[in-house]
Every structure is written in C-alpha cells, then in structure tokens.
Design goal:
heterodimer; A: about 325 residues; mainly alpha; two-stranded antiparallel sheet; B: about 270 residues; alpha/beta; Rossmann fold; 6-stranded mixed beta sheet; 4-stranded antiparallel beta sheet; globular; binds adenosine-5'-triphosphate; binds magnesium ion; nucleotide-binding (chain B); Oligopep_ABC_C (chain B)
Chain lengths: ~325, ~270
C-alpha cells in the first residue's frame, strides 16, 4: 500500500512537471512579448531590453524554464544588485499587471474559491443524492417523473444565465439579498452567508441535477442486484436492507465523480465568480486572461491542473478503501 | 409423514402488456420434515417463481392464488412484516449464482452474522462464534480467518458453501435450493450436492431442490415435481416417476440426460 501511494505521488510529480513545461511553452513562448506590454506607450528599445533582462526573458528558453521550475521548488531571485528581489518558494513570479507576488495572490484568493466550492458541494450532494434516492425508491411515480424532468432541464441551463437571472430576481427586483461583497465570515456572518448564497446555488444547480440522475440510476441498478434478493430472503428489516446493502454499492461510484468535480471547482469557478464579483481564483483567471498577465495565467493553469491530478490520486486511494474488490497488491 | 410444507393449487400471475399471464398454474406439492423434494423442468417453466412464492419474495406486480402452509400456518397473504420473521428463521433459500448473491462490499462473516442477529437476540461476539461454527460445518478451512474475507476472495464452490452456511445459520425447518450447483464446475457440483444432502440428513431440514437436471434429482430427492410452462405435469415418488413416467414431457426430460453414473454424483 505504501509503495502504491509513493508510486502515485511520483506519477503526480512527473505529470505536474509535464504540465509545467507545456504551459510554459504556450504562455511564454507563443504569446506576445510581455516586455512590450509592460513598457507601455512611451517605450524605448533600451527600456524593453532592460525589462526583458530583469524578467530573465533574454535568456534561452530552457534556462528560463529551468529558472521557473527551480523557483517553484526552492525560490528565485529577480534583478540584481540593489534591485534584487527575493521570491521565496513556491515562487510563481510577479504579476505583470500589479507587480504582486502571484503566490500571494493565490493565497489571498484560494479561500474564496474554496468557500464557493465547499458550500456548493454540500448543497448539491444533499439535494442531488436525496432527490435521486427518492426517485429510485419511488421509480415511475409522479415524484420520480417530475424530479427527473427538472433534473434534465436544470442540468442544461448555462451557469451565466442562471447567475444573471438569480441576481436580477433576488437582488435587483425582489431585493431579498444584498449585492454580493467579499466580507469575511468573522466580520459579518449574515452578510457573508448572503453573499455566498447565490454563487452556491448557481454552482450547485447543475451538479445537483447531474447527481440526482446518477444516484437514481445507481440505486435502481443496485436494487435489482441478486444480493438484494438475498438480503430480503434473510429476513433483514427493510431499513437495514436499504442502508447497508443498497446504499453503499450505489453511492461508492459517486465518490469518484464527486472527487473529480470538487477538485476541478477548487481551481476556480470562472463564470460564477466573475458574475458575482467574488475575488476568487476563477475571477483572477478571467482578469489575467483579459490582460494577458502571463505569470498569473500560468499559475492558475498549474493550480487547476494540480487540483485535478491530486483529486484523481485522492479518489483512487479512497476507492481502494471503499470497494473491497479494488485492493492493491 | 407429517408434512412441513404444503403447497396447494398455487398460481402466480404477472400482469403483462398482453394481459395477465400465469407463470405458475395450479401447482400442488408437499415436503415432509427431513425430506428432499425435487422440482424439475426446463428453463422458464416456473420453478423459481414457485420457490420465491413460498419465500414471499416474488417480484413486485406478481399476484398469487392458492395456499402455501408452512408447519400448518398459511403464508400467502401475510404482510411483509410477518413474512420477515419466517424468512431466514423458518425457511431460507440459496440461489444459483453465489457470487452475485453475496454483497461484494461486506465480509462473508458480517453477511452471515447480520442474518443470525436479525432473528436471535445476542451479542456480536456470540454471533461471531455462531458464524465460525457455521463456516466450519460447511467445510470452509480456517473459518475464523475466512469469516473476514470478502466474497470475491473465495472460489465458486466455497461461495456456495458460504451461502449454505448462511441459509442454515438459524436452523430453519425448510431450505429451498434454487439450482445451487448450476453455476459450478462439475466436480464442485458433486461436492456441493454431497454437502447439501449430508447437512439435510444431519439437521433434519426439509429441502426443496430445484434443478433442470433429472440425474441430480434421482440421487437426492424422494419426491419429484415436474413442471412445464408453469404447469405441474407430474408429481410423486421419485423412483416411480423415473421408472414409469406417465407424461411425454417427463420422458423427454429423461431421454435428454446423457447417461451418467449416479454414484459419481454423490
Ligand atoms: N417480472 C416478470 N413479469 C412477467 N413474467 C415474468 C417475470 N419474471 C419471470 N417471468 C416469467 O415467468 C416464467 C417462469 O420463470 P422462472 O424464473 O420461474 O423459470 P425457471 O423455471 O426458474 O427457469 P430457469 O431454469 O431458467 O431458472 C418465465 O417464463 C418468465 O418469463
Ligand atoms: Mg430459475
């Protein structure tokens, strides 16, 4: 088991390295020269050369890539002499736009994205699984058909439509909720909750619909298994039969899907965060793309890749614990 | 002989798009204590539906008529709550495919234990001791350790042994075995058959043995019920039925058996 985990982690590192190289190639080699952008309108060739040198852009590509990677692991220095700036590990460089440390920007914004992701996940898990379960148990009923019809429709509403509609109805028209603002929980819990409620709802809707359909299908499939007939033939109570024999086999595959969905969300909900003006990783990504802020684009890409790949490893490890048939030798 | 199970004019009906269909029609038979009765018939003849009707486990939508009396008490029409006490405690069942009949997510020990605890007031520790004893009885080696194994960690024959251990853990008066050896290798079939016959004799359990293999019936059953398309075509003493089949269908079944030496089976 320990060797399996070590192997998976090593694989994770190699994959991340590949993603690094690939994204670096795309964002720094194939994009417009950042020195020209930083330099602005009143630019001289000397000034451009100076900026290029201070950013290390005058060096060969492989050296630049090497510096970036070593910056991630051990930190790096920018400039020289009195202008020397020390960027501690994990160094993701400085924003061309704001000159802020990209690492610091991520540290500041990650809690917002995490709050959005966790809240939405709680909502969609509870609603999706409960609705799916009820549908499966009452298969073919009025409830089942209504819920599944809604789930089919709900899953196909684009997030921005939902976000703008909710915002218009709840904030502008009915004025039930304030305009979202990034207050920390400790300052004003109520406002905090009200601010996050819409993003949670928007993100949770699509997933809840998906999970309801998934849960329903899995539970119906499990209820038809031979071992359910065995459980009934043993004289077990319906509650125990359902809880022990049906739920675990039916819900275990959902853990995998949930892990992947949640990990992807941690990398930022671009549209939702932008619509509601939440300063999370998603909004940071959107802003950096709009302004071609390469170090930030690079960083959010790496971060998202990291979450997805790490989520994959976590889910696989979890699965070996949840399904006895998947044991590693 | 006092009869343990008496089935009279049992009819099982399913609603279908082409109207109601009787998958079991007016079937009557009886099983004495300490007796094995065979039910034979080709695929789809209603053997499983007859067995499931006795257990009260027919698929939703099925309706029943007639009478099923276990130990003199009528089972048909009993609410599920009451049938639950019958299942496992007075009558239990083993199925054709032991792998899919066991829940892959739980150890076999737990699956036997939960059945015992559903019917007997006892601590988990006591139940565990019973589980080990039950596994020993069906010839599982190292039963203490194997109780902690999952179904996929056993061979096909061992899985069926586990099913048998589970079915008998509450010492039911009646055991229904629905093609318990069909999914197994020939040599393993013989072992399982031998085990079932041995345990049946030892415990005095009444057994309904469902199969489409007449050779198997002749080696373990005293009475036999031959079914064809839901109807009972022959019922009586096994030796007599085999020696002088009165119905063409039975004759056809008999002729379809390749000659087997009965000695090999047991
Ligand atoms: N839910 C159902 N609705 C309608 N008909 C059904 C249903 N389930 C089973 N049947 C029919 O009942 C008949 C008897 O089925 P049964 O399972 O008892 O056969 P069997 O003798 O056990 O066959 P096998 O040897 O293949 O197990 C079959 O013709 C089958 O098509
Ligand atoms: Mg059958």
């Amino acid at each position: 088991m320990a060797r399996y985990v070590a192997g998976r982690l090593a694989g994770l590192v190699v994959l991340l390295l590949l993603v690094c190289v690939f994204t670096y190639l795309i964002f720094f080699k194939l994009s417009p020269d950042p020195a020209l952008m930083i330099c602005g309108k009143t630019c001289t060739p000397d000034r451009v050369a100076q900026i290029r040198a201070s950013l290390g852009l005058d060096k060969p590509f492989l050296t630049q890539l090497g510096d970036y990677l070593s910056g991630l692991v051990v930190g790096r220095d920018y400039g020289s002499g009195p202008n020397l700036v020390r960027c501690p590990a994990p160094c993701l460089g400085y924003s061309f736009q704001s000159s802020q440390s990209v690492t610091q920007m991520i540290v500041d914004r990650l809690p917002v994205s995490a709050t959005v992701a966790v809240g939405a996940a709680v909502l969609w898990l509870i609603i999706g699984i409960a609705a799916g379960l009820l549908s499966a148990v009452k298969e073919g009923s009025w409830w089942d058909r209504t819920a599944m019809g809604l789930a089919l429709g709900g899953a196909s509403i684009p997030n921005y439509v939902l976000a703008l509609t909710l915002q218009y109805v709840l904030v502008v028209k009915l004025q039930i909720l304030p305009f979202p603002s990034a207050v920390p929980f400790s300052e004003d819990p109520l406002l905090w909750f009200q601010s996050y409620l819409m993003p949670w709802l928007v993100l949770a809707t699509g997933y809840a619909c998906l999970y309801a359909r998934l849960t329903r299908a899995n539970v119906i499939d499990t209820l038809a298994q031979n071992f359910m007939r065995t459980a009934r033939s043993k004289g077990l109570s319906p509650a125990l039969t359902m809880r022990r024999h049906a739920l675990r086999p039916a819900l275990t595959p959902i853990v995998t899907i949930f892990g992947m969905d949640f990990a992807a969300l941690l990398g930022g909900a671009l549209i939702t965060e932008t619509v509601f003006g939440l300063n999370g990783i998603g909004k940071m990504a959107a802003d950096s793309i709009a302004k071609n802020d390469q170090p930030v684009i690079m960083a959010v890409t790496l971060l998202a890749a990291f979450f997805v790949m790490a989520g994959n490893v976590v889910v696989d490890l979890l699965y070996t614990g949840l399904d006895p048939r998947v044991r590693v030798s | 002989m006092s009869e343990l199970l008496v089935v009279e004019d049992l009819t099982v009906t399913f609603p279908t798009s082409r109207g109601p269909v009787d998958v079991v029609k007016d079937v009557s038979f009886a099983v004495g204590r300490n007796e094995t009765v065979g039910i034979v018939g080709e695929s789809g003849s209603g053997k499983s539906m007859t067995s499931l009707a006795v257990m009260g486990l027919l698929p939703p939508g099925a309706t029943t008529r007639g009478s099923i009396r276990l130990d003199g008490a009528e089972l048909l029409g009993r609410p599920d709550r009451e049938m639950r006490r019958v299942r496992g405690e007075q009558a239990s069942m083993i199925f054709q495919d032991p792998l899919s009949s066991l829940n892959p997510y739980y150890t076999v020990g737990l699956q036997i234990e939960e059945m015992y605890r559903a019917h007997r007031r006892c601590s988990r520790k006591e139940a565990r001791a019973v589980v080990v004893e039950a596994l020993t009885q069906v010839g599982i080696p190292e039963p203490e350790r194997r109780a902690g194994y999952y179904p996929h960690q056993f061979s096909g024959g061992q899985r069926q042994r586990v099913m048998i251990a589970m079915a008998l853990v509450c010492s039911p008066a009646l055991l229904i075995a629905d093609e318990p050896t069909t999914a197994l290798d020939v040599t393993v079939q013989a072992q399982i058959l031998g085990l079932l016959a041995g345990l049946q004799r030892e415990t005095g359990t009444g057994m309904v043995f469902v199969t489409h293999d007449l050779a198997v019936i002749s080696s373990i059953a005293t009475r036999v019920l031959v079914m064809c398309r839901g109807e009972q075509v022959e019922y009586g003493d096994a030796e007599q039925v085999f020696a002088a089949p009165r119905h063409d269908y039975t004759r056809m079944l008999l002729e379809s058996i390749p000659r087997i030496d009965d000695e090999v089976v047991l």
